[in-house]
Amino acid sequence: MTRVLVAYGSRRGSTADIAGWIGDTLRDQGLEAEVADAGAVRDVTPYDAVVLGGALYAGRWHKDARRFARRHAVALSGRPVWLFSSGPLDRSADEAEIPPVPQAARASAALGAREHRTFGGRLARDAEGFLASRIAERTGGDYRDPDRVRAWARQVAEHVATTQGTEA
Ligand SMILES: Cc1cc2nc3c(=O)[nH]c(=O)nc-3n(C[C@H](O)[C@H](O)[C@H](O)COP(=O)(O)O)c2cc1C
C-alpha cells in the first residue's frame, strides 16, 4: 500500500489539525497516511510521498517545517512532496492563492515540491502572550476551511496514485 507522511510544524495546534484533516482524506482515498510532528520524524524512507506543512509567524515558516525540509532533503529527492502553510487570520487564503513566504519557497525549490498551498489559520480570541493577545483582539477566530483543505488533499491523493511507481 502507498504510504504518505503528513508532517507539520505547529505552535498552537491549528496547523496540526489541518495535517490531521489531510491525513483523514488521504486514508479515505485508499492511501496509508501517517500524521506526525515534523520535529519528531527521524526517517522518511518508509514513505512514498510526503506532505509538509508549517504555521506562519511573523512572516516565517514554523522552524520544525524548515528543519524537516533541510534534514530530509536528500532522502526526499526521489519522493513527491507537497507543501502547505497556514496563517492568514482573514478570508484572503480562500479568495486567492497566497504565495509561500521566502522560507517555504526555498524549501519548495530545494525539495522540488509539486505544489504549495496557503490555508487560513486560527487564533483563539483569548490567546495568551503579549503579541498574540493583541492580534487576537483584532482578528482572532478560526479562518480554516476544512472543505478547501480536503479538496486539496484529494488532489494530492490523485497525484500520488498516478506518480506511484514512476519515481526513483
Ligand atoms: C504572534 C503571531 C504572529 C503571526 N504572524 C503571522 C504571519 O506573519 N502571517 C500569517 O499569515 N499569519 C500569522 N499569524 C497567524 C498564525 O499563523 C495562525 O494563528 C496559525 O493558524 C497558527 O498556527 P498554529 O496554531 O499551528 O501554531 C500570526 C499569529 C501570531 C500569534
TrEMBL record:
Residues 4-157 form the Flavodoxin-like domain. PROSITE patterns: FLAVODOXIN_LIKE (PS50902). Pfam families: Flavodoxin_5. InterPro entries: Flavodoxin/NO_synth (IPR008254), Flavodoxin_dom (IPR026816), Flavoprotein-like_sf (IPR029039), Protoporphyrinogen_IX_DH (IPR052200). This is Flavodoxin. It comes from Microbispora amethystogenes. The lineage of its organism: Bacteria, Bacillati, Actinomycetota, Actinomycetes, Streptosporangiales.
